[in-house]
Prior knowledge:
Blueprint: H1 5-8, H2 12-33, H3 35-43, H4 65-70, E1 84-89, E2 99-103, H5 104-120, E3 128-131, H6 139-150, E4 154-156, H7 163-172, E5 177-180, H8 182-194, E6 206-210, H9 216-226, E7 229-236, E8 241-247, E9 254-256, E10 261-266, E11 273-274, E12 280-286, E13 297-303, E14 305-306, E15 318-319, E16 324-325, E17 330-332, E18 335-337, H10 339-346, E19 352-363, E20 366-375, H11 384-402, E21 407-411, E22 427-429
Parallel strand pairs: 3-4, 3-5, 5-6, 6-7, 19-22, 20-21
Antiparallel strand pairs: 1-2, 7-8, 8-9, 9-15, 10-11, 10-12, 12-13, 13-16, 14-15, 17-18, 19-20
Bound molecules: 5'-O-[hydroxy(phenylacetyl)phosphoryl]adenosine (DLL).
The site of 5'-O-[hydroxy(phenylacetyl)phosphoryl]adenosine has 22 residues, from helix 6, strand 7, strand 8 and strand 13.
Amino acid sequence: MIWNPERETLKRKEYEEIQLERLKWTVKRAYERVPFYKKRFDEIGLKPEHIQTLKDIEKIPYTSKADLRENYPFGLFAEPMDKIVRLHASSGTTGKPVVFGYTKNDMDTWKENISRLAAAAGVTHNDVAQIVFGYGMFTGGFGLHQGLENMGVTVIPSSAGNSERQLMFLEDFGATVIVGTPSYVLHLAELAQEKGLTRGRHKLRVGLFGGEGHTAEMRQQIERQWGIECTENYGLTEVQGPGVSGECLEHCGMHINEDSFLYEIIDRNTLQPINPEEEGELVLTTLTKEGVPVLRYRTKDITSIDFAPCKCGRTTARMSKIKGRTDDMLIIRGVNVFPSQIESALLGTPHIGPHYEIYVSRKGYMDKLEIKVELLDSSLLEKYSELERLTKMIRDKIKSNLLIDATITLVEPKTLERFVTGKAHRVHDLRNQ
Ligand code: DLL
């Protein structure tokens, strides 16, 4: 079902008209109300009136995470605090986080955007959704919560962690939809299997994933284990949280809420805008945000845009699966490697589970890549020749897909870390320590 046919099935020209009108509105407000943007514009002699076409957005300087951080806590707010009804903060690992405020209208738009992506995933008001995203300053829990409740879905706000209790709710409350990071839903699937919580005892049918990437292989594994169909959605705290885009059941990219976000794709090296159908870094501009408008934010996420019509009937442009973040890309002996490429190469290999850790270290001038992979069955550890064969198979696969030699270490089942409260952290780059 299309949640808002009036807004999700427009002609390209109609989207562009809405975008231009809202872009002008956003730029004017940002210039007049946020000293950071005024200063940026004034430095290069740019005035809001200079933005007359969508392409004119290229005149505006990019905004980076550092710019946002420097304005901690409320420097970027375009509304006084009495108009702000909610605060969220980005999950900064170093230094100060970045704080975002939402007005009542921002909250309504957010709900609408989430309802659209959940409807695209086949969720209806008859569903019972268990949200295993963390609540709190992270936008995942509350973001999905509001949008699902807006649709009339019964929401179980169980948050992340306390996995045994999660499974009890899941079974006893009859959840039909599970909402969370793929890594945590995978962990719950394993635990469910251990506890004999199989189909019949649970009613799950849909998984709504987001907050981190996962490969097609990882998704298949989770779908098989739970017996569900999954879609993913994308977003980031800086421009709203979840709700920027979401996949429909055709599984051919994530439909962008084009009336809320303007997207550009830029070349990772030259930082110049490129044809959005080519792969590059996603840059986003908010089109409706009152609390904290954000102009040309460099997301660091690598994707491309598809304008071809989708069989689902929506006409919104689609983002391809995020290949990785520019700052997660590893350069190993001069070769660019995204962790998602390693995951793709690993999963689908017999005898190994979906858990792995990547270690990159340096000996002298030489980079070393080690991949720890969990075996599905520990009895294999006693069969030396089979272990050797499996190790070689994985090494060869990595070599042929990524052109790098890796050391493969097979470890006992359930010995690698599980990610029960937040996003998965599988890459350890030890070179700069
Ligand atoms: O993760 C917002 C969100 C919550 C989106 C729940 C979807 C569902 P942040 O914590 O600010 O916000 O992290 C944003 O997470 O720049 C991407 O690198 C990554 N990310 C989010 N969704 C996806 C996805 C939320 N579907 C950062 N695929 C983004 C890949 C994703 N990466």
